[in-house]
Amino acid sequence: MWNYSEKVKDHFFNPRNARVVAEANAIGDVGSISCGDALRLMLRVDPQSETILEAGFQTFGCGSAIASSSALTELIIGRTLKEAEQVTNQQIADYLDGLPPQKMHCSVMGQEALRAAIANYRGETLDDDHDEGKLICKCFGVDEGQIRRAVLTNGLTTLEEVINYTKAGGGCTACHESIELALADILAEQQAAPAVAVDGTKDPHWQEVIDAITELRPHIQADGGDMSLINVANHKVTVSLSGSCSGCMMTDMTLAWLQQKLMERTGCFMEVVAA
Questions:
Q1: Tens digits of residue pLDDT in 61-117
Q2: What are the coiled-coil residue ranges (predicted)?
């Protein structure tokens, strides 16, 4: 029997925003009823400021799924889409004073639904359509992209952790070998990609830049990209973007986010450019 926090129980028995948003202009659907968990997240976003004015959800699943969906809406109402993009599944779990390890996949489902809703608002197509060869767990419809994001965002290192966070492999176990192979590849890539490519010259703001990039990297890696620091000199930060970030239409937004964070940390303007 799992131990649930009082906050999880409260959001299960008294879910916030468990309703249809009539004028929703952003909708994210994840999971499926046949797999045991499904979530539809609906947002009403102000077109001018891109602030989330309303959020509602419909969930088919366990108490943790309902509580996680409820917590997610509480976390994102009043935030801009750019701010909401930074919400992680761990923040959802923390908002609920924790979830049992076996139920962490419910918080991941919430994060995936938010990601899908924001993409829907922007008219983007996500790369999670289970293309041939990418679907790893047929029982729960989990593909390699979902596993990658969960691993990189939460620092997963074992098969058991991947099962807890994604449900992949929690059914017939036939995909366990595929999960372990994918996990090994992801961890190998992560170890091979250094966060900093030092050029030897240390600017006074060097450490603050490193800290800001370290904060940003998990979000970039979750979408298959990465960022490394090349140089900091004369209030100019040069970074290298790799993976899915190369040629991505969202590159300017990523650089702008880092630039804003550096202004907050250093109190001065620092130009951020990609090498």
A1: 889 999 999 999 999 999 999 889 888 888 899 999 999 988 999 999 999 999 999
A2: none
Catalytic residue among 106, 245, 248, 268: 106
106 is catalytic: yes
pTM (two decimals): 0.66
Domains and CATH numbers, the chain: 6-121 (3.90.1010.10), 135-192 (1.10.10.1100), 206-274 (3.30.300.130)
Quote the longest CA-to-CA distance of the chain: 58
Overall size of the chain counted in residues: 275
Q: Which residues are annotated as a binding site?
A: 35, 62, 106, 137, 139, 172, 175
Strand arrangement, sheet containing 271-274: 225-233, 236-243, 271-274
Query: Is 35 assigned a catalytic role?
Result: yes
- A 10 A CB-CB count for 222 gives 20
**Backbone angle region of 194, left / alpha / beta, with phi > 0 → left and psi within -120 to 50 → alpha:** beta
